Amino acid sequence: MNLLLFSLFREKKRRRIEELNENMVVDGGNGDRSDWQGQWDHVKKFLERAGPFTHPDFEPSTESLQFLMDTCKILVIGAGGLGCELLKDLALSGFRHIHVVDMDTIDISNLNRQFLFRPKDVGRPKAEVAADFVNDRVLGCNVVPYPSECIKQFHIVVCGLDSVVARRWMNGMLLSLLIYEDGVLDPSSIIPLIDGGTEGFKGNARVILPGMTACIDCTLELYPPQVHTGILSFCHTPFCPLHRLTFRCNIVLNMSAYCFDGEALDGDDPKHIQWVYQKSLDRAAEFSITGVTYRLTQGVVKRIIPAVASTNAVIAAACATEVFKIATSAYVPLNNYMVFNDVDGLYTYTFEAERKENCSACSQVPQDLQFLPSAKLQEVLDYLTENASLQMKSPAITTTLDGKNKTLYLQTVASIEERTRPNLSKTLKELGLVDGQELAVADVTTPQTVLFKLNFIS
Ligand SMILES: [Zn+2]
C-alpha cells in the first residue's frame, strides 16, 4: 500500500519536473550557482547513488536534487520550538523554497531553544526573524515569512504546532483541495502533510497523505481532550520531583478558588499570579510545605509542560527526513506514525494509523447524529464538543427549514448568540426538526462545514 502511494507521488513530481522543463525556468543545471564548494555533497550521496535502504524503484540521478532546490515548495506551519529546527533542517537538506507562517511574536522565554532568535529579536514576529536568519545563514535559501493564501502551490506541508485546532484546520484545508473524478481520487491533488508534535519528553511524527491514509481527525482520540479541568486535576499522583512540587502547589491552591477579585484567573497577568503565589506561600507555611516559588505557581496556573529542546530536535529531524524522502522519492517514507518517548530510557516505535471509516473530516460520509426528538439542542451541542472523535470548540449549527436557511445556534457573534441562545433549551421537535434532517455545522477545527444527519431514536 505504502509503495503504491509513494509511486503516485513520484508520478506527480515527475509531471511537475516535465512542466518546469517545458517552461525553461531552470538555468544552470542543479542549482549550484550560488553555492559554496561541496555544499551539497552530503545530500548528493543520498540521491546520486543507490544503497541498501533506497526505494526499490529508485534510480540515482542529479534530477532529484535539482527538483528539491529549484522547484519543490514547502510550507512550514509554526516557527517555534519545532519550527526553528524544521527550517534549519530543511534549509540544510537543500530545500530553498520554504514559506513559513507563525502569528506569534518572540518572547524571552523562547530563547533557550528557539535558536534562530536572539535577545534583540524579542517582541518581533517569529516567522520574519526565523526567515531572515536562515536566509542569511544558508546561501541560496529563500525562506518567505507569511505565505500567500494559496495552499495549492505547495508540494508538501509540514506542521510544527502545539495547537490541535490549528492542525485540524490545516488537515481539513488539504482535504478540501482533493479532486475526485468519478469517485476516484486524483493523486496529483494530494499534498502530503508531515506533522510533528512534542510535549515535554514525548513526541510524535507522522506522514499523512490526505484522502489516502489516516488524517488528523481519524486519530483524534489519540489527542488528550483539551478541556479546562481546573488546576486541581493537573496531577493526581505525585511520582516525580516535578509532580511532587505540582502536587504541593495544588494542595496549596486548594482554597484559592480560580478567581481574582471576581475575575477569572489569568496566567499571563502578573497581578493574578502574585496573588495566587502569596496565598500559596501562606498555605505552604501552614502545612510546612517547601519549594513553592513564583515560577512554579505560574507553571501550575498556566498548566505549562516544560518544552524540551532535544525532543523538538528529534521530532523535527524525523519530519524533515520524511519531507526529504517524499520530495526525492529516493527512500520509502514512514508508514505512517512514529512515537518517541525518553521520559524513562529511550523508547520509540512506528505503527500504521488506520483511516476511520466514518471520519468527519476525510470519509465523505455524512455523519449520523442519534437523538430522541425530546432531546434539547443543548445536548446536541454538548455532543459535538465532548465526543472524543469530534472535539469541536464552538460549533455553529444551521439547517434548512421550510426551504429557508436557519441558524439554530451560533456562539462566535455576540448578537447572534443572544438571539439563538433560547433555542438551546428547546427540544429538537419544538425547533421543527424532523427525522433525517440535515444539520450543517461550522467550527474553528475545520475550514469546511461538516454535514450531519439527524436520526431520531425512539
Ligand atoms: Zn480522517
Automatic annotation (TrEMBL):
Protein name: NEDD8-activating enzyme E1C
Keywords: ATP-binding, Nucleotide-binding, Ubl conjugation pathway
GO cellular component, one term: cytoplasm
GO MF entry, a single one: ATP binding
Residues annotated as domain E2 binding: 369-457
Top-level taxon of origin: Eukaryota
GO process annotations (BP): protein neddylation
Record-linked Pfam families: E2_bind, ThiF
Provenance organism: Cyprinus carpio
Pathway it works in: Protein modification
